[in-house]
Amino acid sequence: MQNFLFITGFFIAILLTNCNASNTTVCKQDCTKCHQITDTEILNLLKEEIPNARILEVRPAPVKGMWESAIETNGRKGIVYVDFSKKYVITGNIFDIKTKTNLTGERLYALNKIDLSQIPLNNALVMGEKNATKKVIIFTDPECPFCGKLHQELRKVLDKRKDITFYIKLYPLKMHPNAYDKSITIVCEKSLKLLEDSFERKNLPALKCSTSEVDKNIEIAEKLGIMGTPAIILPDGGIIRGAIDADSLIALIDKAS
């Protein structure tokens, strides 16, 4: 844990208020004039705790005195902060107390946006009106209990809003041994009812066809760094991981549209 400072919970931004640089006018106006860091220096700091990290971007952090580094490791993108002394790596969220904004969260949301053109929808299960203006993609597993909870919330959304449609992509996880066969059955039948039966732990019919659609869904999800379910892809490409309630989902969809 040497050279690392890990922070859980809130990082109080007001603790760092200056560049710790020389008292020149230039440095006070732009800390990067006096402080620079290379990708190699960051990777050297990360090599023990995050050995497979790849640097995506480095820029000044929202708080003076630190760098913000966007990294990717094992297909997932994240944020770490490095102080100007290059002795500490800081993980956690930076909150703007005045605006009550999670600055790290907003940055992660933008960083992990997905190119919607990479997700074909022609064979997806459709919940809602096909001509709805706001399209949301859901990666779900028929044996995932949290997916079942989210599915109930999706129904509540559709009861309230006719301008939202959900496109369901079956993505069985390896931890659920029967999910793959169930996914093939559901896709072959193009049946939301069978998906809902699975969420309710009812038996599904035996396989009656073969399809490559489920394998394609798995390949697409892994390529996009989606490693778990449920995963919600909003209209602007932003991704929400996990189940949320209907009202919160509606608010996120409206904001993303």
Describe the structure.
The chain is an alpha+beta fold. It is 31% helix and 25% strand. It is built from 8 helices and 11 strands. It has helices spanning 25-29, 39-46, 103-111, 145-160, 179-189, 192-199, 213-223, 246-256, and strands at residues 4-12, 54-60, 66-73, 76-83, 89-96, 101-102, 125-127, 134-140, 164-170, 231-233, 239-241. Helix 4 (145-160) crosses helix 8 (246-256) and helix 5 (179-189) runs antiparallel to helix 6. The chain is elongated. It starts with a strand and ends with a helix.
Notable characteristics:
257 residues, alpha+beta
Topology:
Elements: E1 4-12, H1 25-29, H2 39-46, E2 54-60, E3 66-73, E4 76-83, E5 89-96, E6 101-102, H3 103-111, E7 125-127, E8 134-140, H4 145-160, E9 164-170, H5 179-189, H6 192-199, H7 213-223, E10 231-233, E11 239-241, H8 246-256
Parallel strand pairs: 1-5, 8-9
Antiparallel strand pairs: 2-3, 3-4, 4-5, 5-6, 7-9, 8-10, 10-11
Helix pairs in contact: 4-8, 5-6
Overall morphology? elongated
Counted beta strands: 11
SSE succession = EHHEEEEEHEEHEHHHEEH
What Rg is obtained from the alpha carbons, in whole angstroms? 22 Å
